[in-house]
Amino acid sequence: MLFVVGVPRKTTHKKSKKDSLDKTEKKEAITPKVRQGEQLDKHRTNIREIIQCSNATPIRCRGGIGYACCFCKDQFPDPGDLKKHTIEQHDDESKSTFMKGKDMYGYLVKVDITALQCKLCSKEIETLEQIMDHLKDIHNRNISTDIPNHILPFKFDTEYLRCFMCHNVFNRFKALQEHMHTHYRNYLCKVCDAGFVNRHLLLCHNEGHKIGVFACEQCTEVFDTLRKKKLHQRKIHDGLNKPHKCGYCDERFKENCHKIEHLAKVHGVVGPLIKCKACDRTFATQQTWLLHTKKYHLMQRQHKCTRCEMDFFSKRELTDHMVKHTGTREYRCEMCFKSYGRLKTLKEHIRRLHPEERRFKCVDCCQSFDKHLALKCHISAKHGDNVLNATNI
């Protein structure tokens, strides 16, 4: 079902009739407010009817631990557990208060419609729009279909996060949520034609198109757009340069992939894996899956050797290859001063011939290092622990 955003129609008038002009201006000033109020009431009624008359589960957010309940503070790593919790622990009376006092200007509802079913007749239904039509036409429920839909539906019926409308795969729920705006284009950006489910998100997006002088308050960097400034602040300054926080122990990470590794190794929480559609490999992050796809299945080779016909996926691979042509040996062993053309070869040399020189040992996995700084970096990256997990051997 296609929802069309209504636009108030301006009343025509003649400039010579001042009284008529005044009445028209007053009418146009009041009409949008009345319509917004009517839309808010209809939206509230729609979502309450859907939640009370079906097994659709609202999702408050996906926080540090998992999917958060809209009716209490509980969070669940698996959305199926949230659905079970909501159905068993919260009755229709508590659900009837959902969304009261909320302003539709910046509000949207996220609902899990996995195995969607009407509670009134037990009919299985595929989509959010179909359950709305079903409740209205079959059960005569108070459902309004003449307003923009501010409800984003999600299905968790596969082992990985997937948009059930176009089957795109995502590693994070936030990324999937942002993607859903492409299917619910209630408000459109006039600059880039991006679509958004509500007006608030469109206005926030429009701020990124403004050009001017935007100075970072924490350093001397200056940017020509607000979006570039915010990206800089999030990457460089926010959270002590570590914006990704673990919901279990509050440890922070610079990259989301490091947080995912930490959750799996320290807390035993394994996120949804992305399965490659061209082979049997699986990946923890969308980034690693994309790199794998580009390198091994799309066969992208943008880095070409200037001395032979070979080409490579990464600049590092090309650099290692060039050693064959140049004969340079810039990596030198500090123990025996033997030089190598590749860092990988030097590390293998040290591992085989100088194990006694690697005095700093990790007590968790027994891997040893020749420098204490290298051991600290290893512990931070692999074990998420402090530097006390080290012994001098």
From TrEMBL:
Superkingdom per UniProt: Eukaryota
Domain C2H2-type span(s) in chain numbering: 67-95, 214-242, 274-302, 303-330, 331-359
GO MF terms held by the record: zinc ion binding
Keyword Zinc annotated: yes
TM ranges: none
Keyword Manganese: no
Region (Disordered): 1-27
Pfam families: zf-C2H2 (PF00096)
Protein name per the record: Jg11305 protein
Ranges annotated as biased composition (Basic and acidic residues): 18-27
InterPro entries: Znf_C2H2_sf, Znf_C2H2_type
Keyword annotations of the record: Metal-binding, Repeat, Zinc, Zinc-finger
